[in-house]
Each structure stands twice: as C-alpha cells, then as structure tokens.
C-alpha cells in the first residue's frame, strides 16, 4: 500500500495520458491547449523526477475486497495497516508528500502530520486474496461532489448538465466524472467514488458503440458535457471531461438517488491484488507513453516585474492576457487568511515583516522540498475559498492582486472590481512545472501553519493568465460562453 501511494503520487495512469494526449491533439482553443500542454509536460517531469503531480497529494481512499479465507499475521486491524502504509508513504524522505488531513474539523483543525487517517471501505468476499483499489483524492475535486434525490421520472443527463456548470473549474478539468445511481444516499455517493477508479476507455467505447443502457448514458453525458465549452481549467475549449463512469444499484421504487464526483487532472489511483506470496508490483510507465509535447511560453506572453509593478500597469491588463511574472510573491491560503481576519477583528496589525502593499498573493500550500529543491511542487489552490477574505485583503492591506486556480465567485469579482485589483490563474495539475519557476523561498509569517504558512517566493517567468481584470471581466465566463457558441455552430 505504501509503495502504491508513492507510485501514484508521481505516475499518471497510461490510460489518462493517452486520453489527455488525444484531447491536446484535437483542442482548438489556444488557452485550453496551452493548459493541457502544461499538464502533459508536468506529468512527464514528475515521472522523471519522481515527484508529486500536484501539491495537493490527496486524501487516501481505499476499497478493499478481502477474501473470507484470508488470515492476517498481524495484531493490527485492517484499517490500522492501511493507516501505517499512509504514514510511511507520506513521510518517505525520498519523495515527501504533503500532509493535508486535519483532525477536529469543526474546531482546531489540527494537521495530523502524516496524512492519516485514510477513508477505508472493506467488503468480505469469497476467496483467499485481497483486492486493493487505492486513490489519493485532491480536495479541489472532492469539494465539487454533488448529490440529489431525483424523481424516478427525471432525466439523469439533464441533471448532470445543470450540475457540472455549477461546479466551476476548481476540480481542475479535464478529468473524469464518476456517477453513482441507486441504493440510498450514501450508496450512490460510494458508487460514484468507486466508478472513478475504472480505466478511461471512452475513445474505445465510442469506436465500438454502446452495448447497454449505462454505456449509452456514458456517451450521452460525455458529449453533452463537452458541448458546454467549459474546457481545460474552465478557460473555454473542446474537452471538459475525458470520460464518464457510471455504477448503479437497485433502489426504492419511490426514489432515484444520484451522486456525482469529479476526478481532477492528477487522476491518482492504482489497482492490485495480494495473494500472500509477497508484495504486488505496479508497472513503471514507458517514456513512450507520453506524447511529444513540451510546453514553452507563448511568444506573445507579456513579461512582468512584480517588484516594480504599478496599479497603472495592472489596469492595462485584459482578461485572457498571458503573463510571465518575475520577482517577489507572497503566498497564503485559508488558514493564513483566517489568522489575518482575526488579527484585524481584534484591533491588531499584520506581523512584523509582512507587508502586502502593491504585492501579489499566491494561493498555494507547497509540498516540502527534497534533495536540492528550493520548494516542492507548488501549484495553485481553488481561489473561491478566499472570496470571503478578498474585500478585507484589498481594502486593508494594500494588496494589488491574487494568483490561484479556477473562477472567482460574485463576491470575489465584486471586490476585485471595486478596488481595481486583478486575479491571475496558474494551471492546476502543473504543480511541479510551476515550482521550477521558484528561485528562493522563505517563511514570512505563521510558521506554525506548516504548508499554510505565508512564504515569500522569488519567482522567474512563472506562467499565469489574467482571469479577472480591473474592470471585472472574467475569462471563466467569456471563454466557456464563446466555445459553447462555437461548438453549437460546429465552428471548430
């Protein structure tokens, strides 16, 4: 189990790489194509460097089918064995993984330090083997899970088409959708989660044609969701989902419970069987699995010096502009923003040495560095979680702009527009690639918060896109709308 968690931290499954390569080949949106190129380049870099695909190395979810003839030579319970594996994997000094689990979720929210406990689902089945399906599920995609109790006569496709746009882009598309239908509320959600662990095979399915009702639904939802034009990272484009997986279960005659859970661009999972003869092994991907895609900055990208940036310069940027930013960049996410809010509420001031005046803040919780790294993988986190703090930060700290991933909500956009700030996005799913732009790193405030402390990064040519400009125009609104129109007109 520990080996599997290390494996999936840095190796994409080959089926995902093939599907993403095909999406890159057919993508007509320049912004989406650039984002997919970053994800593919990041994927190859992580495989070569044995480092995490994403800074959010996930909550561990395990499905175990335990044969009823199996006997354990251990004083541990099965869940204790899984948690010991998680502990060893996430603290492995050769490839440190980020600990994201917090205990006392309604109170102190104290980090457990080793990413335990895992979420374990165990079934007893006939046989004498242990079948293991393990995933490391990122918080950005997990937060977009949806559940509904539909009427038996309701249309599943219509519900999905209402639900997916409301998810925004914080789940880091392009990815897969897991859908569970039937049973009870908890069963439908469990089916949706397990569905995500199946191989991506939509291309093969469409080539041979559907053979049953669920396969017909998979194709219908796949085509309909991609016709929404949301695209990679929500920037607008042809591919929002690479596959749709559906599992169903008998349910009450009066009910139609439905769960939907997306899987992000990290797509971390493994499947193996233990038969008692020794540990299982997972195949190392062949370098030939990756397409010949090597991201480089667009020639038209504007170079920006963060150390001399002015409000007049920022006012000239438009949503969709591509930038390469260099200079000093502060970091911070949920816990740091909460600390600042409490300081201001109590009449306090910012800690000594922390000054946001005319600065940018990067919403990130990096992985700890190893070997000669300055910082571990350091991709953006979902920016909407910071919307509630945006007015405070722009009004009271002199902050000029923010960098994160995905769209901003109405509250965030309103604050940005009111204070003539700006919001930039980096590509979720390209954490290792982004980290290579960091030239130095030091903790500035709240060191006890660990990965949620405020750091100062010195970056060089970090790739970002203007997502919300000073006038309030959002690429996450204009991009998908334009590509939905183009797809409807068969203009691509």
Short structural description:
The chain has helices spanning 2-10, 14-26, 30-49, 78-90, 139-142, 156-166, 185-195, 202-208, 213-226, 311-315, 334-345, 387-396, 410-418, 431-435, 475-488; strands at residues 59-67, 102-103, 110-111, 119-125, 130-137, 146-150, 175-183, 241-251, 256-263, 269-274, 302-305, 322-331, 360-362, 401-404, 422-425, 438-445, 454-468. By secondary structure, it is α/β, with parallel strands linked by helices. Helix 1 crosses helix 4 (78-90).
Characterization of this structure:
It is a single chain. The chain is an alpha/beta fold. The protein has two domains: 2-275, no CATH class; 302-479, Fe-S hydro-lyase, tartrate dehydratase beta-type, catalytic domain (fumarase). It has 15 helices and 17 strands. The strands form four sheets. Strands 12-13-14-15-17 form a five-stranded mixed beta barrel. A four-stranded mixed β-sheet has the order 4-1-5-10. Strands 6-9-7-8 form a four-stranded mixed β-sheet. Helix 1 packs across helix 4 and helix 12 (387-396) runs parallel beside helix 13. The longest helix has 20 residues, at 30-49. It starts with a helix and ends with a helix. The mean pLDDT is 96.
